[in-house]
Amino acid sequence: MRLAHISDPHFGTEEAPVRDALREDLLREAPDLVVLTGDITQRARQAQFRAARAFLDSLAPLPVLTLPGNHDLPLFDLFTRFTAPYRHYRRHICASLSPLWRGRRVAVVGVNSTRMLRHKHGELPAPLVEQVARQLAALGESFKVVALHHPLEIIEPSDRRNRVRGADAALAAWIAAGADLFLGGHIHLPYCVATGDGSRDALVLQAGTSMSTRRRNGRPNSYNLVRFVPIALRGAGEAGLRRIEIEERDHDARIGRFTIVTCREAVCTGSGWSLLSQGAVPLPG
Hints:
Helix 5 (126-138) runs parallel beside helix 6. This protein has six helices and 13 strands. It has helices spanning 16-29, 46-58, 78-83, 87-92, 126-138, 167-176, and strands at residues 2-6, 33-37, 64-67, 100-102, 106-110, 143-147, 181-184, 191-196, 201-206, 222-229, 242-252, 257-269, 272-279.
């Protein structure tokens, strides 16, 4: 099972060559699911949503799970923001703000971390955290993934204000309910970290901006390709372990393609997920 994690295309600021290269790479790799973690548009305008819809349609037959970001709520149209903030998103992208995808071994739970009264920052109220925890606990798939727009963990002190409100409570409840991997965007910075209280850890995977000119500190556009391996095959002593392999793919403007720049591998033992390796050489197989 493979999952492509893209985020923050910000249609209205997209670069056409990068957009087309992303489409080509996704269709070439043909993941089982594409997850888009928000900020689909730059200013929640209908023309931007239509452009996003055309891009998503061009990925057919790949299934796509989408979530709204703070940029997908109207900023200047205050009447729409306070009366029907998700109207354009629901009309053009997805009717559900909390989609669920279930495969043979992997389930992905979508969580809406945006709030009408918050211009930029996200929030996870206690009732929502409890609802998602119950949903996770009821799933029987080998791998449980939670996707949302705002980051649950940060690596740069300057991003402290961008971490979603209620992150600590959400991580504790959702990891206890069986979550293995959290997907996020918002800050246009790709990274992967293990998180938890030590008794059971999970992974937080962030994606950069997939095609927008709003690149952070000159970093290239990027997305993640995730492979879920239910049984490790590298040695008899590892039988029964679960593995996640993650490729960060960056857009190389010199050749007009997305290429693998970082490979990460994580393994799940009795205490949860641990990152084992990271390098610039593609993983075998």
